[in-house]
Amino acid sequence: MNCPFCGHEDTQVKDSRSTDDGAAIRRRRVCAACTQRFTTIERVQLRELVVTKMDGRRVPFDRDKLARSIRIALRKRPVEEERQERIVNGLVRQLEASGEAEISSARIGELAMDALHSIDGVAYVRFASVYRDFREVEAFSKLLTDMRPGEEAELPLPPVKRGKDKG
Ligand SMILES: [Zn+2]
């Protein structure tokens, strides 16, 4: 494993341990050249998933990308990092267990929304606002009615219609 900071080939494992759910192993590493520390994560990959995008492109499933979008949705929300990791693990397992070789990006979005919905209303709406078209004000207000008191305060604002988009 090359050092991500200086590219040096000699990095040493200082510590390795399983994540709480046992689904992965984290290794703390240190670079022998620049002494920077970093973490690598090892996890089982059952099979290669292919994602079909809206525009018809087919790309390999990117776990990190899914994890990033979940993390962004949960930013500053009271959901611990370990739990966020478990959400992503759960989603990946669902995808792998589906038996399909190809999964649409829309389907992945739906599964992620379902997972977030049961965990944090604000994160759910944030995620949904990226995946769904929020020009329909009704759709947005319907989501609001599903929320618990106090959660509305942290919502992103619905997209503003630009004047020149008429028609
Ligand atoms: Zn280095």
Automatic annotation (TrEMBL):
- Name this protein carries in UniProt: Transcriptional repressor NrdR
Which keywords accompany this UniProt record?
A: ATP-binding, DNA-binding, Metal-binding, Nucleotide-binding, Repressor, Transcription, Transcription regulation, Zinc, Zinc-finger
Which NCBIfam families does the entry link to?
transcriptional regulator NrdR
Task: One Pfam family, please name it.
Answer: Zn_ribbon_NrdR
Source species, please? Asaia bogorensis NBRC 16594
The record's comment on protein family reads: Belongs to the NrdR family.
Molecular function (GO) terms listed? ATP binding; DNA binding; zinc ion binding
Q: Where is the ATP-cone domain?
A: 49-139
Bias (Basic and acidic residues) occurs at 7-20
Record's cofactor remark? Binds 1 zinc ion.
**Classification lineage:** Bacteria, Pseudomonadati, Pseudomonadota, Alphaproteobacteria, Acetobacterales
User: Which PANTHER family does the UniProt record give?
Assistant: TRANSCRIPTIONAL REPRESSOR NRDR (PTHR30455:SF2)
In the record, biological process GO terms are: negative regulation of DNA-templated transcription
